[in-house]
Design goal:
Strand content: 5-15%
Mean pLDDT: 83
Order of helices and strands: HHHEHEHEHEHEHHEHHEHEH
Largest sheet: 8 strands, parallel, barrel
Number of helices: 13
Low-confidence stretches: 1-47, 65-78
Shape: globular
Distance between the termini: 31 Å
Helix content: 25-40%
Oligomer: single chain
Structural class: alpha/beta
Radius of gyration: 28 Å
Number of strands: 8
Length: 314
């Protein structure tokens, strides 16, 4: 993703450039010389004699004032948390949508879905195409700049961790370096995998209270449901989803068993105070919010305003 970084000089408000002109018009004169008198105009055998009393007075005044001068670190305000983290930290409901076609054109279009707090971009299967995702991100940035709005944060779903711990960390690192705001780990089945996910993300909220990235797990298999308490109790997790689609396959389309599994994930999240997520549409998004789900990925864009109204965020 193309990012434009501006170097800020601390003493210059709002990143204004600082320059100093040194030369005849700068107003800087040699010690002991008068304005308009060149250094070359003084004779070589006339050494400059410092005004020691004056220098001593200046030093005393400076030392006296130093305790009153704020340190640079104290003057610098902490960087504000991203809106997505702020929403999660404040306990509000959060709404997302799927990326759609993974093209630059769709990246530009998705910026117009302003009801979405985040975009889910999946590379769970197929080629792990980071350059393609960066083209999508760049298009989002450009479209947002033209519309004078902020682009929604992108969450990247990577392949399951399984036994490939190093591979999962590497893929997460590639996504973060490209500019995503969080990593989604699907098919998490054990506390060990949950711990790997936490270790793969630096600057992770809530492990770091001022963290700027989030860790999202999806529990969507029978093994994961059996271990959900151990998974959700892993320190550092941001969000844990119940995955209805894969749970329906895991339970062979027994929808009562699927719903029971979804509610098992929700109960664990409520017990350990972790935001719980699920997918929902127009017909069930308000009900899911009432049940206690705090992160909703809308299966249709029309569900987003419905959910926001139900959550009091319209």
């Amino acid at each position: 993703m193309t990012l434009i970084q501006t170097a800020v000089v601390p003493s210059a408000p709002f990143g204004s450039p600082v320059s100093r002109t040194v030369g005849p018009k700068s107003g800087l004169v040699s010690p002991g010389s008068k304005r308009g008198q060149s250094v070359q105009g003084r004779r070589c055998h006339e050494p400059h004699r410092p005004d020691w009393p004056a220098l001593g007075l200046m030093l005393a005044v400076t030392l006296a004032l130093c305790p009153a001068l704020p340190l640079l670190s104290q003057e610098t305000s902490p960087m504000p948390s991203p809106p997505l983290v702020e929403l999660l930290a404040s306990g509000q409901a959060v709404f997302g949508t799927f990326s759609g076609d993974q093209t630059a054109e769709q990246g530009a279009r998705i910026v117009g879905v302003r009801e979405a707090d985040f975009i889910l971009y999946s590379m769970e299967s197929g080629p792990f195409d980071v350059p393609g995702m960066m083209a999508y991100l760049n298009a989002m940035e450009e479209a947002a700049a033209e519309a004078a709005v902020d682009p929604q944060p992108l969450l990247l779903r990577i392949p399951p961790i399984g036994g490939d711990h190093d591979g999962a960390r590497d893929r997460a690192g590639q996504g973060i370096e490209a500019g995503v705001h969080g990593i989604v780990f699907p098919h998490v089945a054990s506390a060990e995998e949950a711990a790997v996910s936490v270790s793969a993300i630096p600057d992770l909220w809530p492990s770091v209270p001022e963290g700027r990235l989030i860790d999202v797990l999806i529990v969507e298999d029978r093994e994961g449901i059996a271990n959900v308490g151990e998974i959700v109790s892993t320190p550092g997790l941001s969000v844990v989803f119940a995955g209805p689609g894969d749970l329906s396959r895991a339970y062979e389309e027994d929808m009562e068993a699927v719903e029971a599994a979804i509610q098992t994930v929700l109960a664990a999240c409520l017990e350990f105070d972790v935001a719980c997520g699920v997918t929902a549409g127009v017909d069930d998004i308000a009900e899911r919010l009432e049940q206690g789900f705090r992160v909703i990925i809308a299966t249709e864009d029309e569900a987003l305003p419905v959910g926001r109204r139900a959550a009091g965020r319209d």
